[in-house]
């Protein structure tokens, strides 16, 4: 696993852990006193991630448009689960044969309100992507906001989550803003969603 892929996988796994620590309600019902905004978070979480989209099998039109590929014979799986029933299913893709950004493309049973309630993240922007509510955000302690960006777009039963890692050292995309990249890629993916998503 490359440094870039390891970073993108670990950061996304931390999202769920931080959501739990931020005081989202558990299935038992009571809100945590550690976060006043936790009361607005849903009291239940879907038992699994949305299945109407597979982050490991992207449409060929998107693969071609974004120069997506992977190292090895297939995209690297980035499935994860943390306490509280939070899950992710998807894969990490690279671009321009490793000279561009990497993207962790997954579905999760986390919702937009759960992410908004998480004090470990700073919301960059609330946007609409393909008619769906979405938000871009960063870990609150990130220092290079151009290089890393997360975006979650609503789906039935959770969200589509994309994380872009785009250090300045990337020859092809290193000067591009990661939040602009993630909005464009998400728009291309959402356009291919079935109506049931």
From TrEMBL:
<feature type="signal peptide">
    <location>
        <begin position="1"/>
        <end position="22"/>
    </location>
</feature>
<dbReference type="InterPro" id="IPR024520">
    <property type="entry name" value="DUF3558"/>
</dbReference>
<protein>
    <submittedName>
        <fullName>DUF3558 domain-containing protein</fullName>
    </submittedName>
</protein>
<dbReference type="Pfam" id="PF12079">
    <property type="entry name" value="DUF3558"/>
</dbReference>
<keyword id="KW-0732">Signal</keyword>
